[in-house]
Amino acid sequence: MFQPVATFSGFSVDDIDAAKDFYTNVLGLEAEDSMGGIRLSLPGGQTVFVYAKDGHQPATYTTLNFVVTDIDGAVEALQGNGVTFERYDGMAQDEKGIMRGIAAQRGPDIAWFTDPAGNILAVLQQPE
Where are the beta strands (DSSP E) in 9-89? Predict the structure, then answer.
């Protein structure tokens, strides 16, 4: 019978050192060297494994969502750390790059950005 004792998720990057620098110094996460990659400690106690891969192709979907209580403050703080927010056609993003789903009663407020390997990340504020 299948009985796992733990789970974790992972995704690839093209440069593990650049990834470690970004996730620790720009996003403020803790990273531990592990199995030839890094294990990121995420808010809420979860972890994710990041590994270098030859021929890495950036994910075309959001690999990590960072939930915040103040999306405007989070976007401004990330911009202050050099993060540039993505713009997507048809997403009705404001001048900060935030899609305002709460006011439209269409889900969270969300803004997307990428890591140095081009993987898509998001910061979002959920409706109360």
Answer: 9-13, 30-34, 37-41, 47-52, 62-67
pLDDT for 28-86, tens place per residue? Answer: 999 999 989 999 999 989 999 999 999 999 999 999 999 999 999 999 999 999 999 99
Q: Which domain holds residue 81?
A: 61-128
Query: Whole-prediction pTM value?
Result: 0.91
4 within domain boundaries: no
Structural domains in the chain (count): 2
Long-range own/partner contacts, residues 111-116 (CB < 8 A, 24 or more apart):
111/71, 111/75, 111/85, 112/62, 112/85, 112/86, 112/88, 113/78, 113/83, 113/84, 113/85, 113/86, 114/58, 114/86, 115/13, 115/19, 115/22, 115/23, 116/13, 116/15, 116/18, 116/19, 116/21, 116/22
Q: Are residues 66 and 102 in the same domain?
A: yes
CA 36, CA 7: separation in Å to the nearest integer?
Answer: 18
Same domain, 71 and 125: yes
